[in-house]
Amino acid sequence: MSYRFTHTAFLLLASSIVLTQNVQATEDAVPMTSTECLQDIDFTAQFLLENDAGIRAQKWTAYPENIQHILNTQKEKAAQVQTVKQCQDIAKPFLQAIRKGHLWLSNQSISESIHESSTPQQDDLVTTKKLSDSTTYIFIPSFGLSIKDQLEKIIKNNQDNLLNAQYIVLDLRKNTGGFDTSAEPLYSILGEAEYWSEVPQIYTSTVTIQAWKELEAGIPDPDSKKMLNQMIKKMESNKNGWIGLMDNKEVSQKISGKDVLSTPQKVVVLIDEDCGSSCEELVKTIRQNPRVVTMGRNTFGALDASNVRDVPMPSKKLSINYATTYVHRRLGQEIDNIGIPPNIKLPMPKDLQAYDDEVKFAQKYLEKNL
User: Which spans in 238-346 are helix H?
Assistant: First the structure.
């Protein structure tokens, strides 16, 4: 997802893996005919070839043989469809064969998902714990919109000695992402550092340009509207091509001076296979900080193709959520379908106790400097 220290207007474009898991209970009861489902799947397949930034970056004009085979197989199953949920389940193997994340069918609009994300749920609360006099633990379950306010309050209150701790264990396991801006308060507690990030490129299909126009129309902030208007003009002057979210291919942000609220000696960031999207953006960025050590397992692998928008499909019962941007990373640094490897690899925990013991291992690593 795009770098958002100063370009926060692009927050509203961002969407995450979290949204793909917000399956509504009512979906099981929403009727859908096999004809409607097949029509939606056919629409999806053609739409993605023409509009999805991740696919356009691959320069596909047709699906590779293995993906086309999966598509054909899943389409045969559409004859048994009776509900929206069943159609989503049938489409999922095809979509996941293309890419692990930032690609799904939904009966809920992105704007509705954003509204839900603004209110903290019981399972979306940031928690802290003082592990010892020198080490503080902080668990962040997602980067939903409510997380930023939670983090700001925790930091302001110096909860569990967070600002004075020599060591921090930052637990991002199970964090399925959200919005880059929600993670911004964390940079202030990691000490002085400079972070570099590659700028995403927008694929300027007609549909995506229209999605940006709709985004601009719904933003009240005049500065953000002006910036988006300029971006839309650039897109319209280069239709069916690529333009950068910013003028430079890379941008940097230095955290220094009054922006630094604490300087721990060392920080362990626990990551796993669920850490995706904005979670990966944070990991990719803060691992540039010499105080930070990542520990655990490869992240999910859904970051290169991002900035999701949605478009209604023929049935009007589902929308296709697709990526409008792609980061053309240097060879060997791709993240999609691969993930970000940790500095210190830990085995997959065999049970809950082993999972909890990873926090103890991180604490021991910090305090004993293993």
Answer: 278-286
Q: Which residues pair with 326 in a beta bridge?
A: 201, 305
Tell me the two tokens of residue 337: 């379908």
- For 58-72, how does the pLDDT look when each residue is reduced to its tens digit (9 = 90+)? 999 999 999 999 999
**Which pair of tokens denotes residue 41?**
């799947």
119 near 146, Cβ under 8 Å? yes
Q: Is the dihedral of CA 15, 20, 25, 30 positive or negative?
A: positive
3-state secondary structure of 358: helix
Q: Which helix (H) or strand (E) holds 40?
A: helix 34-51
CB-based contacts of 247, cutoff 8 Å, min separation 6: none
- pLDDT single digits (tens) 319-350: 999 999 999 988 888 999 999 999 999 999 99
Contacts of 228 (CB under 8 A, 6+ apart): 9, 212, 215, 216, 219
Angstrom distance (rounded) from CA 155 to CA 135: 15
- How is residue 236 written in tokens? 């319209």
Tokens 């095809």 belong to: 94
Closest by CA to 4, choosing from 169, 213, 145, is 145
Q: Under 8 Å CB-to-CB from 289, ≥6 apart: which residues? A: 190, 191, 193, 195, 267
Classify 162 as helix, strand or coil.
coil
Block residue for tokens 């809920």:
108
> How many residues are recorded in the chain?
370
Rama region for 242: left / alpha / beta (φ>0; ψ in -120 to 50; rest): beta
